[in-house]
Write the structure tokens for this entry.
Amino acid sequence: STHSFTLFPYTTLFRSKHYLFANIKTVDDIERAAAQLKFEGIISDNDEGKYINFVKESIERNNVKHWFRPGLKYFNECSITFFDDNGELQTRRPDRVIFDGETMTVIDFKFGNVVKKGHETQVKEYIDLLRNMGYKNTEGYIWYFKSDKIHKVEY
């Protein structure tokens, strides 16, 4: 199904969807997160239901309910702090990291049209950082919402 969101400009629309996904741990959080967006004035009353449906349909259509199930450890928009090769303190913030007790999974949300090589490089960096933290069984995905595709980062 297609969704039309009329109140906000293109970039605000994608930022608000990104914000919505960043504030969801399980599928049970979708309505609460959308209500919070409405409360903060980011989306209108009219758009709240559209956002809820967008999230639910995206999760269902892409077979990723397991990324949003209860019982996982969730790290949404968490900071990973490290020292680079020059000794400078750096911070990276993956969109979503989940841990099922065995595998650490990094999911990066992309809402634009363009698939860039840099997207994969970014997720590989997150994987490296998590592996360096001791999570050897780590995988990464890029979720392109515009094309409705999920790309597994081979690494």
